[in-house]
Prior knowledge:
mainly beta; 6-stranded antiparallel β-sheet; 27 strands
Amino acid sequence: MLKTRKKLVGIVLALTMLLVSAGAGASAPAAANPSAISGFLPIGPYANGAGWGSIYSDGTLTTGTTYKFVSGIAAPYGVSLGLFGGYIQFDMGAATPIANDPNNPYGVDFIVYGNNSTGNNPEAGSVAVSSNGTDWYELAGSRYYNPAGDTYGVQHIPQISYIKVSATDAKFDATGIWYSWNYAGNVSAATWHFVNSSLRWWPDSSKGYDLVYDIDGYVNTTGGAPYVVVDRDAGPYEIITYKNITGLNPYGFNDPANFQFGYFDVTPNGSNYGTAVNPYVPYSSSKIGGDGYDLSWAVDPSGEPVALDSVRFVRLYSSIMSIDSTSGGISSEVLGLYRAQAATGDGAATSDLEIWNAAETVETETTNMGSVTVAAGSYVIYSDEDYVFVNGSSVDASTGYSLSLSSGDIVQIITQSGTESPYVTVIKCT
Length: 430
């Protein structure tokens, strides 16, 4: 039983938002799918400019003209994003961005469909979003705040660079593709690790990749930090660098239960495209419907929640840090992206979350899509919501859940019930 009751306040707020929404002028619904693709660059077995390596449904990167995804699920091929960092970026349209709508079931604003048809072999990818192409925010998945050293931890990585070596020399004893975490413009000074001997994995300009990695300037927008740097003339080499990405430790990568929410190419698609399933329901063999995303998960590079009204751009990228010389590692695939259809949920979050000190004499007030700073120590969390997550792990807080915080800790708490939107808050320990 909760120590106090805040549910009534949440219900009043939710009803108010529903009334405001109902009173707004009607407008034509936005198209379900992206209006365009603004960038694509994979490294891996399918980086051949055709099939899984092309963004066009009617040809290769050099001959095609019709984008996949803009009319629904891509068939028979979507795209393969290749090695860690490889991406596709969608443009939803300047006049039709994806709205952060609390009336959507479970708060889900859009859904990504991968090619994990059975649920047994997830190839989890991460998502970043932007309203202008300049300022980008990660949608923090269930593992986002886990320390890098944890079994299911993450690493927030400034960059990873891949190099194409066409001939052996004093630096490289094998031809093929190598990678480095510390390349800073000097090939000789960087530490490189071998990936694969197949140069066919490289997204050569002759295959058309220079035409599509930044189609309209919204991947590397003026004034913003570039996501990808393509250097075709680094001496005898070619180098591709992906920047500011979140890497998932590969342990347990083949179990979808390890990617509760916030990752795509995990949940099988089904056929009811655009209809959200609850991302907070634990994975089971009967769970289908793709991987839903809530813009309320957005965070800045420091992990601080960011309140976004809408976004125009959605970037999907491979994020499992597994680079294998045989298979190429774990590559996320994409078959489609849909806005969530039908705003028929229970409305804004009505969380009853309470956080008390260990003696339960002082309560810490929290805000939805906000953060609060607390001192190190022991705390007790209470909530009667259907689902309660602490840094992505499901907990029972109905009779109190104990939490110990040390200086520097960051903890995300999410509560959610029924079809209402989640309550998302972050605690930072000084």
